[in-house]
């Protein structure tokens, strides 16, 4: 590994549950120090929503290692966004960072427009931004929460695809992050699971759209299982986290960097014969459908 490819110092954080006295370990990991890049995305440009932390950050770093310039979108965390940008540039690739709400169509238009203005082309779109809110009863899901979850998780994907479609290069790749909950459900994440089911249907339907087919664009999804990201300890209680991630054959939660190669595969010509599919990275949970 060259000096330019060494990981920059990542700020230490505490991921809190409910109050400031409860800390969660281990630290979520978004980079595999043993990753072997092969230039699979050399000369490509990518947009990744929710690219500042967790899965999005892991994908951004892997894409950069494979030779892509990467634009990330984020909502709040300036520190995470700055770290991701600096890491991409340390690797030797260009980075753009856009703060805003993916649930607003104007934001999607702004991000795509500025990427095209800066880099001149767009090859990969990763719709990854998401949010979830635990509720024990359906009656506790407010209209505001329902609207917010759908806007962030599925409306945003429509907005970004609409904005990107006129600019996507022939042979481009669209990758949508869905979830294991789309296939097995989640009793405490009713609205979130519903959006993930919608994402799976959107992915399959979009792959068959004539505009997509004419431009030879491949559309696929990734359905993560229990991945240890900052979203998890921020969402669940300490009691709910005791056995979290132990339901699969591998019997542990995954780290975000373990997902990243799946996105590299779907973004590269390695998957030239793959479209309309959802790949399951979930620690050994067998899912039908």
From TrEMBL:
Residue segments, region Disordered: 1-36
Composition skew (Polar residues), residue ranges: 23-32
SUPFAM superfamilies: NAD(P)-binding Rossmann-fold domains (SSF51735)
Gene3D superfamilies given in the database record: NAD(P)-binding Rossmann-like Domain
GO terms for biological process, alphabetical: bile acid metabolic process
GO molecular function terms listed in the Swiss-Prot or TrEMBL record: oxidoreductase activity, acting on CH-OH group of donors
Keywords, alphabetical: Oxidoreductase
Biased composition (Basic and acidic residues): 1-10
Family to which the UniProt record says this protein belongs: Belongs to the short-chain dehydrogenases/reductases (SDR) family.
Official protein name in the record: NAD(P)-dependent dehydrogenase, short-chain alcohol dehydrogenase family
Organism: Carnobacterium viridans
Phylogenetic classification of the source organism: Bacteria, Bacillati, Bacillota, Bacilli, Lactobacillales
